[in-house]
Structure formats: structure tokens, C-alpha cells
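Q: Is it fine to ask for two folds in a single conversation?
A: Yes, each is treated on its own. Send the first.
Q: Here.
A: Result:
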Amino acid sequence: MPRDYKHAKVKPAQSPSRPGWMWFIVGLMLGLFVALLVYVDGGRLIADYRASQSRPAKTTAKETQQKETPPRSKTRFEFYNLLPEMELAVPEAELVTPRVSAAKPGESTAYLLQVGSFRRLQDADRLKASLALLGLEAHVQVVAVNGQDKWHRVRLGPYSDLTQLRDVRHRLQENNLQAMVLKIKA
């Protein structure tokens, strides 16, 4: 059946939709504006917190007497008891120029490199794996601190030759790893 187009209403042309890059720019600008507001407000919050911490608290004489603490006893360092007696930290100067000590004829000295100490075994294993990728064989030592906390030490060695020890330390330093040198009596 034929259709009469003479009296048909003409629809206005649709305006083209906005291109995607324009929506991206608008979203990016909006995001940067929100980030700026958070940054400015966050700086104000930090400044307010620091100012409140630096102000002395208002206390009365009675409160001051109640808050007085008994005199402190001398500070006790417990880490001396925690380290095994056969391990000693070695100063850097001794590694550069070892001093000749009066060692007993049957006694030998060896060195360990402690690369890290972690509470979680997964962290220690991750470091051990990264050392293996460098060609270094590490082992993990589990130590109980204060009878309850377990620490996992990642160690390399023992090394009896100081030149080998220096080479390993140099390789660690090239890979942004710091190691503590420990002397053990074998």
C-alpha cells in the first residue's frame, strides 16, 4: 500500500554524540580536581594533628601528682641474652684490614652474612629465593625471642675466607641488599 509522504512530520536531525576522548578529558579533570581537594584537606588535617600534639595538655596540680610515675630503673638490654654466645657482630674496619689475634692453634674463625630477619616465614622464603637467583645459597634459621615470638633469619655462609666474604657482600650491595657480618667460633 502506498504511503503519503507529503504530510509526514520531519524529525529534527540528531546532534552527534560526544566523542570518547572528550569524556576521557572531562573524567580526568574531574578526578584531578577531587585529588587536589583531598590533598589540600589532608594537609590541613596533618597540620591540625601536629599542632594538637605539640600543645601541652592543661592539667591541674592534683592531676600532676596522680600522673607522677615512680623513678625508672636502669634500662636493661635483653638482646645480649638473645644472641647465641658464639656469634658476634663484626665491625666494618675489621673486614677491611683484619687484625691478627692471638687465636689458639685448634680454633678457627668463620663468618656468616645475615641478610634479613622476618616474623613471617613467607617473607624469609621470598628473600631466600631472590638470593638463589643471584647464585647464593641461603638458609633460614628460626629463632624464638622471649620464648614466644618467632623470627626467621636468612643467612649466607659460613665463609672462612675474607676475600670470598667480601665478594659475596659486594654482589649483595650491587643488588641493593645489606648484610650484617657475624663472626662464629668453630
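Q: Second one now.
A: Result:
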Amino acid sequence: MTKQHWVISDLHLGHSNVLAFTRSDGSKLRDFQSIEEHDETIVDNWNKVVREHDRVYLLGDAVMPAASIPTLGRLNGSIVLVMGNHDHRHKNKKYEPFIKQFRGSSQWYAGPGRNWIMTHIPVHPMCLSERFRGNIHGHTHSNHLTQRWMDENEESYESKDRRYVNVSAEEVGYTPVSVEEITRC
């Protein structure tokens, strides 16, 4: 059986305040009745796609508070945690039974000239020119990076920057997504 590689970010397991976050239009970012329902949805969705021998790149903000760290033990696969701004170093000892590796970033080789960098916080666009085709990231939740363009009439407009793939939990249906699929383009 072939090992698959998955990616997701910003689980915020146990973080009841995440249920109060809103989008720019005022709608709820995560529409759950309780943090228990939120966490169970993530665990169920994760385990529906990830098998025991698969690898998952968790791009930061895994658990808040530390008392919820054991929830990671219910997730299939081996987890590589790319540290986020809420993954404090003092938690590492508590994370160790559930996390295979800790990283600041991770690189994904998808073929010649098609390297991707996986981070919690998006990297600066200048980092994507020659070395990396794109950036798989989290942190921005429902917000996406944009690019400003100029058309032939010299009118500017903005569009989603396709070099960036946001895998915050709410953007991927609270389910890890295939790294191979993301980087196939």
C-alpha cells in the first residue's frame, strides 16, 4: 500500500474562542455549537482520509490549550508539525508522543522546477521566484493572498494569488488534503 501525504493547518483543537471568530462579512468562521463538536468533526474527517502509514504535514496551530494535546493521539498517520505561532516550544515535550517531527518549514519536491514550501505563515512573494513554485500555508484562515494586475487599458485589479494555497482547516472542509494533488499543477 502506497503511503500518501496530506496537509492541513490551524486545527485549533480545544480552542473554544475560535468559535467566536468571524469572516470579513461577519459570518462565523467555524460554525459549530461547541468545541467538542468542532474537535470531533476534525478527528472524524481526518481519520476518514488518513491511514495509519500516511504522513500528515500539520502547518501549525494544532492545539490550544495544552490540555487538548492528547486529542492528537486519536489522529491516524504520522504527523510532521510545522510550528505555528500558537505552537509554543514549552509544549513540545507534551506533543512528543503524538508528533513524529517538528519543523520550521518543509519543502515538497513535485518535479523539476516545481518545488513547494510548506509554512504556517505565508512567505514573502520574493521567496517564490526561482526556488519555490508556490507556498502551501495556513495562518490566514479564510483570507487569501492577492496579486495586483494591470490590464491592457492600464486599469488595475486584484485576483487570488495562485502561488499560495491556504489549507487552514475551514478552507479545506476540516479534512486534510493531498499534497500530491495540490502540487500537481
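Q: Anything structural to flag on that second result?
A: Two points. Residues 35-49 form the longest helix (15 residues). The helical segments are 35-49, 92-95, 179-182.
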